[in-house]
Design a protein that fits this description.
It is built from 6 helices and no strands. It is mostly helical.
């Protein structure tokens, strides 16, 4: 599955860069998106509308969150969510939910351990989204089927 390989490679780069530099590089997201479309267009052209809708929905929701609370989320996370929608299609929903859940658990753990000081800690959110993305790549559609069934 070439799209999955490109996706996991993109997520690995994003995770390492976000941990080290607290940024999600546009060049990596753009290259990933272009490769995703280049692979999907000839191999699965019927999936392109779903992928585009998922990218717009995930990126749009995260953009609204970033507008509402700009200190809490950067635009790199918004673009990452959109790229994940392009790669995963409808499976982006469980990816984002898993990322939010794991990120929240880490945040609560830091609050319990450090108290009010934890509120000043900058925690990159990209790695949590990336972890959710890998889980969704492997079992995202099954999670959706389980939920709907």
């Amino acid at each position: 599955m070439p799209i999955g390989l490109v996706f996991v490679t993109m997520l690995a780069i994003v995770t390492l860069t976000d941990f080290e530099q607290r940024i999600i590089p546009n060049k990596v997201l753009i290259a990933g998106a272009v490769l995703c479309i280049a692979i999907a267009a000839p191999t699965d052209p019927g999936s392109l509308p779903e992928r585009a809708i998922a990218a717009a929905a995930a990126g749009g929701v995260f953009f609204l969150v970033a507008l509402a609370y700009p200190a809490g989320m950067g635009l790199g996370d918004v673009k990452l969510a959109a790229a994940m929608g392009l790669f995963l299609g409808s499976a982006v929903a469980p990816a984002i939910l898993i990322g939010l859940l794991i990120g929240s658990l880490v945040g609560v753990t830091l609050l319990a351990r450090h108290g009010a000081k934890a509120r000043k800690m900058a925690i990159p959110f990209g790695p949590f989204l990336a972890l959710g993305g890998v889980v969704a790549l492997l079992v995202g559609n099954q999670l959706i089927d389980l939920y709907l069934g």
